[in-house]
Amino acid sequence: MHREVVASDMPSQNPNTSLNRALCVDYDGTYIRTDAFFEGLTRLLFRRPQRLFQLPLQLGKGRAHTKQWVWENSRDLMRVELFPVAPEVAALIGEARDQGRVVDLVSASPQSLLDSEPTITERFDAVLGSEGGSNLKAEAKADRLHLRYPDGF
Description:
7 helices; alpha/beta; 41% helix; 3 strands
């Protein structure tokens, strides 16, 4: 289960001080040094290649759906806890925590993938991922963050 921070949970923030703003971290290629979608595809390719024949049909249903499909079909083949965490990003998260800042993980990866690993949900105040056909990528991610943190992050 992911846990979202509501405004009353957040420390009072002076929008002019970046040390008081939330630190928002992306998952694929930032927090981890790989991409969960490609990890899933690779595992399907080598362990369940027959399932990849369904991939074109899934792609026609949109990116968020395709990512969820790959996760559902490869989750038992992947150990999310073994994805390599970028040490420099882990250090930034630690510094932000020491400063009392809110730290969120915001990703286009499926919410269910992010929720599957307790060390992810424990490390962040909120874990926000793609779900319900909505791909939390690029503009959608920026829009979501601007709604959560109108004074900046």
